[in-house]
Amino acid sequence: MSLVVVALGGNALLRRGEPVTAQAQRDNIRSAAQALARLLSDGHRLVITHGNGPQVGLLALQGEAAGKAAFPLDVLGAETEGMIGYVLQQELDNAYQPKARFATLLTQIEVDPNDPAFAAPSKPVGSVYSEADARRLAQQRGWAIAPDGEAWRRVVASPRPVRILEIDVIRWLVEQGVTLICAGGGGIPVVQRADGAHVGVEAVIDKDHASGLLAAELKADAFLMLTDVAAVFTGWGTPAQRALGDVTPQALATMDFAAGSMGPKVQAACEFVRRTGGMAGIGALDDAAAILAHQAGTRVVPGQFT
Fold first, then answer.
1. Is 265 a catalytic residue?
2. Choice among 52, 265, 281, 297 that is catalytic
3. Is 207 a residue of the active site?
4. What CATH number has the domain bearing residue 294?
5. Is residue 99 annotated as part of the catalytic site, yes or no?
6. Are residues 22 and 95 in the same domain?
7. Of 302, 126, 124, which Cα lies nearest the Cα of 222?
8. Choice among 9, 28, 77, 123 that is catalytic
9. Dihedral of CA 306/296/205/181: which sign?
10. N or C: which end of the chain has fewer CB within 10 A?
């Protein structure tokens, strides 16, 4: 039995353009659970992570609509980990008929308070505003802001994950045969103070890098990033567009990918393969089993590293 860390993104939770409603999310999570149940039926052990961007944005909007400042991002992250984990856990239990144990674990992930990302916030979160409103809110609330197309948005730091605080608990649950949902949305971002205590910070950890760290710490056999595209493509959007099949980190290092979309996935995949010698796959949710069988998606495999 192989251990597979599966990072759900894209249409696993919300299809592009869909409203962020409870029913839309449940419908998509039900489909995701059915795909994951097939992996369980094939004998794989799973640890599951997921995105939470639209959900965090909605909670922040609800706080603002009520005339109150939104809760800090670490708290919103914890809320969405519980909310999404609950629905996914329930739908997995419904989709997989053999006796199994599922659990959701709120996961704190430590970041370096001196990470350069804190000096250059770049991750958009929450509502869109006019420039005048964005500047007013920035002054009132101490936000960093930046243009996002024709609108303006709050931006926060996206530091690299350093350490998973609950990793020993996660290992124990996996050893007990639990199918675990954890590190949702990149985990709850925390830093360690000089006195050793941990506190939450206003940041968003990239979910692919957090999931890759989790997969490496668990020494997983495979790391799957399942999204709404079939593979990693070179020449995306051009007549020369071509899907990559089996590819090494060395080969990928010679290629360029969009920083806000495929770039982090490719980087996380390469880091996992370099650290473990396992396989990292990127592709469509419905192709999960085929990716593991090297029949679909892009598979990053060990090779000559530079």
1. yes
2. 265
3. yes
4. 3.40.1160.10
5. no
6. yes
7. 302
8. 123
9. negative
10. C
